[in-house]
Amino acid sequence: LLSSHYLEEIEALADQMAIVDGGCVIAEGDPNALKKELGGDRVILRVQEFSNKNEAEEVRNLLLNLEGVRQVVINRAQGFSLNLVVDDETVLPRLRVEINKSQFELFALSHSRPSLDDVYLKATGRTLMDAELAISGQRDIKLESKQAMR
Length: 150
What we know:
With 150 residues, this protein is of the alpha+beta class.
């Protein structure tokens, strides 16, 4: 049994894992299976460094019907970049071809697989960092130091 807040350590060493929140197990299973349940790889696409709303919507409509693309969300806060959920990395070549056939050029493209951070976020509704900050905010460091000196 290994107890850790270091998700990279869990991913490297554990065959099975459980997420405990408030003393209750809220998610458990094989780390890869838990990541796979999140529903696909993530892709962030930009056709310009800073697009506008209309341009982003045109590209979104272009990509929505592409085989293997499950979801396309326009991220206004990041210069109207497009955040996609795709089946797997085999979608990327088709995505590039579709962009090249259009009036748009590919400015930036990043691909990532779901992480245990994403699993934790889905299970708890907050990041592990948020949870750790909440716990540390409840600690009384002075009291702990006094008790340690006794």
